[in-house]
Design brief:
Blueprint lengths: L7 E5 L4 H12 L3 E6 L2 H11 L2 E4 L5 H15 L4 E4 L14 H30 L6 E7 L12 H23 L3 E9 L5 H9 L3 H6 L10 H12 L10 E4 L11
Parallel strand pairs: 1-2, 1-4, 2-3, 4-5, 5-6, 6-7
Helix pairs in contact: 1-8, 3-4, 4-5
InterPro entries: NAD(P)-bd_dom_sf (IPR036291), Sc_DH/Rdtase_CS (IPR020904), SDR_fam (IPR002347)
Keywords: Oxidoreductase
GO molecular function, one term: oxidoreductase activity
Length: 258
């Protein structure tokens, strides 16, 4: 089990799904956690239950990122881990709706999933540079749709592909600067989360279809992805940066005809 004793972590999108499972896992592994979510009621309730600190946050708000980082450093003294988990879906294909509807959906999902993740990386790197040895671990949550996009959601697919490239850019920049700040991406397969449930409402039957893409023929549990995140957050993998960690039940390892 990864040891996160004494580590200070921020987890965005903490109110449900992978974010909530990650808060639980980090606390059980010894970390102190500040969770954030745009759903303040659910996020506060979860953090109160588990013994974490909570702040409301819209990750697409640049000013709020500065406030969250300052709050974490003020309360705990430093920042060791950032999990950029908050995300949403656009629910629109390239041919859906009017231009205004598609562009509004695109702008919103890119602002949260991609720009919000970039702003989190930037704010975290600035804080982690002050750690002894300039150490830290940033984990960005991408998706298998970054590699095998959904025709039914152009914004989500593009944003998660962007998260993969962003992760590698951040990782290599930090390494080239001589910083011991690692940045890796976790690529979950179809997982029992609020986002997938929302996508199911737009595309009925999607959950069963994506579950069938895995040779294991099921959806992932959020705790399974949280375990991978905890490993990347720990000191067990100091030479691992810019990597994609698949937690997809083998979905991307099998020919689609089989």
């Amino acid at each position: 089990m990864p040891d996160l004793s004494g580590k200070i972590a921020i987890v965005t999108g903490c109110a449900s799904g992978i974010g909530a499972a990650t808060v639980r896992r980090f606390l059980s592994d010894g970390a102190q956690v500040l969770g954030t979510d745009i759903n303040a009621d659910a996020g506060q309730a979860l953090c109160d239950e588990l013994g974490a600190t909570f702040l409301p946050q819209d990750v697409s708000d640049r000013a709020r990122w500065s406030e969250v980082i300052v709050a974490a450093v003020t309360k705990f003294g430093r920042l060791d881990i950032l999990v950029n988990n908050a995300g949403n879906v656009s629910g629109a294909s390239i041919g859906d709706g009017s231009d205004e509807e598609l562009f509004a959906a695109w702008d919103q999902v890119i602002a949260v999933n991609l720009t919000g993740t970039m702003m989190g990386c930037r704010a975290a790197v600035a804080a982690m540079k002050n750690n002894p040895g300039a150490t830290g671990s940033i984990i960005n949550i991408a998706s298998t749709t970054a590699i095998t996009p959904l025709p039914t959601d152009v914004g989500y697919s593009a944003s998660k592909a962007g998260v993969r490239a962003l992760t590698k850019s951040v990782a290599t920049w930090c390494a080239k600067q001589g910083l011991a700040i690692r940045c890796n991406a976790v690529i979950p397969g179809a997982t029992e989360t609020g986002i997938l449930n929302a996508a199911e409402e737009v595309t009925p039957g999607l959950k069963a279809a994506v579950a069938a893409t895995s040779p294991m023929n099921r959806l992932a549990y959020p705790a399974e992805t949280a375990a991978a995140i905890a490993f990347l957050a720990s000191d067990e993998c100091p030479f691992m940066t810019g990597a994609d960690m698949l937690v997809d039940g083998g979905a991307l390892s099998i020919h689609p005809g089989f």
